[in-house]
Design goal:
Layout (H helix, E strand, L loop, with lengths): L11 E2 L8 H10 L4 E2 L15 H10 L11 H12 L20 H13 L34 H12 L5 H18 L5 H12 L8 E10 L2 E12 L2 E9 L2 H13 L3 E11 L6 E10 L3 E9 L2 H16 L13
Parallel strand pairs: 1-2
Antiparallel strand pairs: 3-4, 4-5, 6-7, 7-8
Helix pairs in contact: 4-5, 5-6, 8-9
């Protein structure tokens, strides 16, 4: 407004970051009518550095303004700049740092998990704590949530779902997060998705609880409804048990027979199941919340190609967890 022949000049600004305001100064200059920002990638330059062009460009991008710069492979750009400058980019640098898309805090993880669950294909990117879609910069969602002593059930269940396809019911999330927290308190280290899966397998006997060899002896329908009589060979705590029971379905028949054979009072309080994988790799996963002897309430988890077998394994998993165990070996993170 105050320059003659404004259209004949290029108005350029050259902010530095001495007071930590380089990005803000550059953006205000653009809003006031500047044509060009002079800066460096990742804030390289004299003293605290010239203004960081990556921050300004991608701030514009998050607001729907194309900066005319291609950062679709930002890790390659960072690698080149680090090599040329012989200076590392800080791991918490906005947009490109190793930790910039990573949440450890339980409340942050829970918000991100819920937003990802609600998101549909084609939705405009609107994600808490993630101002830009990491995939737009050539990054992945793999490190968005990581688990350490600050983390809560949301982050743990997110990793199990995203990496292993497990959809833990809410109360199981709470129960298992306590097991993870005990390991975190003892080791004080970050756990990877592989570590958490190994701990889940160990806690619920996924690989060690044998599937009960069951057979439906009789199935009848009458005025009182459907009735199933089932026989099974079960191994609990290394002891083989023959079970025979009757109920309205295989699960009730099995728990009734198991109660009679072991002397335990077993009630199923809640039941969830889903499939993981597809085709030849498909498996059923069953989560059963059990009440044992009116003293313990806990979950058992079973996985099998057959949903009935998975459910019976989950019951055995819960009973094994309810047994008094002298001393479990310390958990060792996955190699």
């Amino acid at each position: 407004r105050h320059l003659a022949r404004r259209d004949a000049i290029v108005l350029s600004v050259h902010p530095h970051n001495d007071r930590g305001t380089g990005t803000a100064a550059g953006e205000f200059a653009l809003m006031a009518g500047a044509d060009r920002i002079e800066g460096c990638l990742f804030g390289n330059g004299e003293r605290t550095g010239n203004v960081d062009l990556v921050n300004i460009a991608l701030n514009m991008y998050t607001q729907g303004v194309s900066p005319g710069l291609d950062f679709s492979d930002i890790d390659e750009i960072r690698s080149t700049v680090e090599y040329c400058n012989q200076l590392p980019v800080h791991p918490r640098h906005p947009y490109v740092g190793d930790l910039v898309y990573t949440s450890f805090s339980g409340s942050h993880q829970d918000a991100i998990k819920k937003a990802f669950s609600a998101r549909k294909d084609g939705d405009i990117w609107d994600m808490p704590y993630l101002p830009i879609d990491p995939k737009d910069l050539g990054r992945s969602y793999e490190a968005v949530i990581r688990v350490n002593s600050q983390s809560g059930k949301g982050g743990i269940s997110y990793l199990l779902e995203s990496e292993y396809g497990l959809e833990l019911p809410r109360r199981l999330q709470i129960e298992f997060s306590q097991a993870v927290q005990r390991v975190m308190d003892a080791q004080g280290k970050e756990l990877t998705a592989k570590d958490i899966w190994a701990l889940f397998e160990r806690e619920y006997g996924i690989a060690t609880v044998p599937a009960p060899q069951h057979q439906v002896l009789e199935e009848t329908s009458g005025a009182a409804g459907k009735s199933v009589r089932l026989a099974a060979d079960v191994t609990i705590g290394g002891r083989s048990i023959k079970v025979e029971g009757e109920g309205t379905g295989p699960i009730e028949a099995f728990t009734n027979g198991l109660s009679e054979a072991t002397g335990l009072s077993i009630r199923v309080l809640d039941y969830h199941e889903h499939a993981t994988g597809s085709g030849a790799n498909a498996q059923a996963v069953a989560y059963l919340e059990l009440r044992i002897n009116d003293e313990q309430t806990l979950f058992g988890v079973g996985m099998d190609v057959n949903i009935v077998s998975a459910s019976l394994k989950a019951i055995v998993s819960g009973i094994q967890r309810a047994q008094p165990v002298a001393a479990k070996p310390a958990f060792a993170p996955a190699k």
